């Protein structure tokens, strides 16, 4: 495994992180979830990403049990707050009340005294940014949270938060968690340049396009059983945006590129996001331990300019680049 700094902070994270969205507490039984975490640890992954909302809070519990007994100092545990975790008006968003309650629930479920990174899962248009940043800063002072990050915030929102933090002396955001893959490059025009200047690192989600970039979904054919595209508990709806024949055909055309390099398709996809120096880590998901063992081999892989050009030529117009696609709900969900 290789390690990178989380933005300009002193914290080092594994280039490849393990995330448990849609799997732990949902698509995948607990034994398989624990085997995936074991495989991740054995392969040198030290960084684990979850969220209070995943599987209605069950994903944090599963991860907490799977990591129990591991040396805490050797792990970086990331979680998030924003999406609803209960029926109440205040069980969502980034108010001081919900942030305070949510971190306590996350720490209990994860069976830890602190999380390494606490992330605002979206921007909350209904809470003053000062209130959110002060509440986060208080958690840092209390030792419940070591670093603060955001997810899917626009460049303007990140810039505004950094300005307030600097003016008020609050802890600064060190990371952003956006979707980023060969197919989804919307952070490149605005968020990456700002982040490079401000020392914010990207911890990117769905680097394999939720499995699509492995090439296992064939155009015009039903998806393989047991894959995310057949997962009725939520996965199939989430992956739907990439499940069209234009995307799937072009992904098949990436196979010779991966083969020439002696890489699996998943490794090529993960290596691609890691070529961006503003990326601190690629968070991969897995439903089986062999996937984790395949994916980690992307750490440290260098892709030269010719390879990147060939990939762009193959994918052509199916690549999404519009920065306006980075959005948070206008009102709280
Ligand atoms: N901040 C946010 O808003 C946000 C949103 C989404 C995700 N995330 C984070 O990002 C993490 C990763 O997201 P993701 O799960 O969509 O990422 P991904 O790594 O692009 O997709 C993972 C899925 O692809 C399939 N897969 C992975 N490796 C494979 C391999 N080698 N061969 C074949 N299939 C393989 C598996 O699904 P099947 O086996 O079921 O097909 C696996 O669950 C999440 O766990 C979460 O921590 C954050």
TrEMBL record:
GO MF term set: oxidoreductase activity
Oxidoreductase listed as a keyword: yes
Database matches in Pfam families: Aldo_ket_red
Signal peptide start-end: none
UniProt keywords, alphabetically: NADP, Oxidoreductase
Keyword rRNA-binding: no
Gene Ontology CC: one annotated term: cytosol
Family as reported in the entry's similarity comment: Belongs to the shaker potassium channel beta subunit family.
The protein, known as: Aldo/keto reductase
Lineage, opening ranks: Bacteria, Bacillati, Actinomycetota, Actinomycetes, Streptosporangiales
């Amino acid at each position: 495994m290789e390690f990178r700094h989380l933005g300009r902070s002193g914290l080092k994270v594994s280039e490849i992180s393990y995330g448990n969205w849609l799997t732990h507490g949902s698509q995948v039984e607990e034994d398989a979830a624990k085997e995936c975490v074991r495989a991740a640890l054995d392969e040198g992954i030290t960084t684990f990403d979850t969220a209070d909302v995943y599987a209605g809070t069950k994903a944090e519990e599963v991860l907490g049990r799977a990591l129990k007994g591991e040396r805490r100092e050797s792990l970086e545990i990331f979680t998030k707050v924003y999406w609803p975790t209960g029926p109440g008006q205040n069980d969502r968003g980034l108010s001081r009340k919900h942030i305070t309650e949510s971190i306590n629930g996350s720490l209990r479920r994860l069976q830890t005294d602190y999380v390494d990174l606490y992330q605002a899962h979206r921007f909350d248009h209904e809470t003053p940014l000062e209130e959110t940043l002060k509440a986060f800063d208080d958690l840092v002072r209390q030792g419940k949270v070591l670093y603060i990050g955001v997810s899917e915030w626009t460049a303007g929102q990140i810039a505004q938060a950094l300005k307030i933090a600097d003016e008020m002396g609050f802890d600064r955001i060190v990371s952003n968690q956006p979707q980023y893959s060969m197919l989804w490059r919307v952070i490149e025009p605005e968020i990456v340049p700002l982040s490079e200047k401000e020392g914010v690192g990207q911890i990117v989600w769905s680097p394999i396009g939720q499995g699509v970039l492995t090439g296992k979904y064939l155009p015009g054919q039903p998806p393989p059983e047991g894959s995310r595209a057949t997962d009725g508990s939520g996965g199939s709806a989430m992956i739907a945006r990439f499940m069209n024949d234009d995307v799937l055909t072009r992904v098949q055309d990436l196979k010779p590129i991966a083969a020439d390099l002696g890489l699996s398709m998943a490794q090529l996809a993960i290596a691609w996001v890691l070529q961006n120096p503003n990326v601190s880590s690629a968070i991969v998901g897995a439903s089986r331990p062999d996937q984790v063992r395949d994916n980690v081999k992307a750490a440290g892989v260098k892709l030269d300019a010719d390879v990147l050009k060939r990939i762009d030529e193959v994918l052509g117009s199916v690549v999404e680049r519009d920065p306006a696609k980075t959005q948070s709900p206008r009102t709280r969900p």
